[in-house]
């Protein structure tokens, strides 16, 4: 294996359905090109409470007596009335002096367009379901009830900031509408990375909802360029995952603001898992927990060993070229045509067909770090795997480096949650929005 690099690329929604420059077993990761389509997060548009206004300006249910002003003080809203230069990521919060419950929220732009949104589960704020527009006046109205049941209301008109000149790029490694394997993490990418002091605020704007519900958590890399989201265990087959990385307009401490929101709705397919044992030189393939095939492999030789750990299929190329001429060791420099390649690491480890090593497969390791299989087995695997399927290799001379690929599942749950910028409840967090 050669040196490990990870140069991220953001072109639209980041998805490994497009071409990643391939360097083969032992090559460095090159810049990737990504394509994808917009997704959607289901949101509801709040409707204002009906009824005639009472003395304090709040609506009163039909037939109910009008409350006195002292019994129903107005709600205090944030942003405050008259606020200016607010970020387009602004959320609406309200507080009642004497307690009570908050109800509906309406947010209307100066041209009359209504903005849908949802309350956070903890009731701390109401989150618009789309970025606000720059340099635009909005009016927010929040209704609620006091401890005595009296209706109350608060209104605030504020203006958003002009578009900033310094933005931070972002990406999402999910393609809207696609189906992935059970180990597919939600991978958000940022360029440049998010400063450590800003990660908690950014993480609060990264929303994941699963159906059926499964708890989860985020994990940041030390340089803040990527964050993974996963559950304590692999996703349940058939799960729907809705993701919104609501970075647009989020202010950072380095003077930058987030560029856009990234959204996707994806499905999780059947449980398909590959386990490779260096001791036996075999791969065992499981589908929905049952062994469906066992096949011989050849792993990396001692000078270029394969990585031991749990990896994820990141990309699939039926035909490609491995070019490792930039490797420092001349013995590891080559250009080879490859069939049925499935990327496992940024550093250049793949599962792929290797007809030249079929005589050694199941007996000894001769590769440059890849998992070599026969042409027939390579074709069969390629036809049956999905991006996001887990691959576990054990018993080699090298441990998988954290971040060399989508290594979210190579950590225990206890280790994984330590990388969150926010506290994680025991067992994982649920959705942030109602």
From TrEMBL:
Residues 1-24 form the signal peptide. It comes from Micromonospora mirobrigensis. It comes from the Bacteria. GO terms for biological process: cell wall organization; peptidoglycan-protein cross-linking; regulation of cell shape. InterPro entries: Big_10, LD-transpeptidase, LD_TPept_cat_dom, Transpep_catalytic_dom. The active site is at 352 (proton donor/acceptor), 370 (nucleophile). Residues 45-74 have a biased composition (Low complexity). This is Lipoprotein-anchoring transpeptidase ErfK/SrfK. One of its GO terms (cellular component) is extracellular region. Residues 272-394 form the L,D-TPase catalytic domain. Keywords: Acyltransferase, Cell shape, Cell wall biogenesis/degradation, Lipoprotein, Peptidoglycan synthesis, Signal, Transferase. The keyword Acyltransferase applies. Residues 45-86 are annotated as: Disordered. The keyword Transferase applies. It holds the Pfam family YkuD. CDD domains: LDT_IgD_like_2, YkuD_like. Pathway: Cell wall biogenesis; peptidoglycan biosynthesis. GO terms for molecular function: acyltransferase activity; peptidoglycan L,D-transpeptidase activity.
């Amino acid at each position: 294996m050669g040196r490990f690099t990870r140069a991220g690329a953001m072109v639209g929604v980041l998805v490994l359905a497009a071409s990643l420059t391939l360097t083969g077993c032992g090559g460095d990761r090159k810049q990737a090109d990504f394509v994808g389509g917009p997704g959607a997060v289901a949101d509801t548009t709040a409707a204002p409470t009906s009824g005639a206004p009472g003395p304090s300006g709040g609506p009163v249910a039909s037939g109910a007596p009008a409350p006195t002003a002292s019994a129903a003080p107005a709600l205090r809203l944030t942003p405050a009335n008259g606020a200016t230069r607010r970020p387009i990521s602004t959320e609406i919060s309200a507080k009642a002096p004497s307690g009570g419950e908050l109800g509906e929220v309406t947010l209307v732009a100066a041209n009359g367009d209504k903005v849908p949104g949802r309350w956070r589960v903890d009731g701390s704020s109401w989150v618009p379901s789309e970025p606000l527009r720059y340099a635009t006046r909005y009016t927010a109205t929040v209704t609620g009830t006091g401890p005595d049941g009296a209706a109350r209301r608060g209104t605030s008109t504020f203006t958003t900031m002009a578009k900033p000149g310094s933005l931070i790029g972002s990406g999402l490694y999910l393609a809207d509408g696609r189906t992935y394997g059970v180990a597919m993490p939600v991978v958000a990418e940022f360029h440049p990375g998010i400063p450590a002091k800003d990660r908690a605020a950014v993480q609060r704007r990264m929303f994941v909802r699963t159906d059926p519900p499964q708890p989860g958590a985020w994990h940041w890399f030390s340089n803040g360029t990527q964050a993974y989201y996963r559950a304590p265990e692999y996703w349940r087959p058939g799960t729907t995952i809705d993701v919104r990385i609501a970075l647009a307009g989020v202010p950072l401490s380095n003077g930058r603001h987030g560029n856009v929101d990234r959204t996707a709705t994806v499905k999780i397919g059947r449980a398909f898992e590959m386990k490779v044992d260096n001791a036996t030189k075999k791969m065992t393939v499981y589908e929905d927990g049952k062994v469906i095939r066992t096949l011989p492999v050849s792993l990396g030789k001692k000078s270029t060993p394969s990585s031991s750990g749990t990896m994820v299929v990141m990309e699939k190329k039926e035909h490609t070229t491995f070019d490792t001429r930039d490797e420092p060791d001349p013995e590891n420099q080559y250009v080879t045509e490859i069939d049925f390649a499935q990327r496992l690491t940024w550093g250049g480890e793949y599962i792929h067909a290797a007809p030249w090593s079929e005589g050694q497969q199941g007996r000894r390791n001769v590769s440059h770090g890849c998992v070599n299989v026969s042409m027939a087995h390579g074709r069969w695997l390629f036809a049956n795997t999905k991006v996001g399927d887990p691959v576990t290799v054990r018993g080699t001379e090298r441990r998988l480096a954290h971040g060399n690929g989508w290594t979210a599942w190579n950590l225990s749950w206890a280790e994984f949650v330590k990388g969150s910028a926010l506290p994680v409840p025991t067992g994982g967090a649920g959705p942030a929005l109602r």
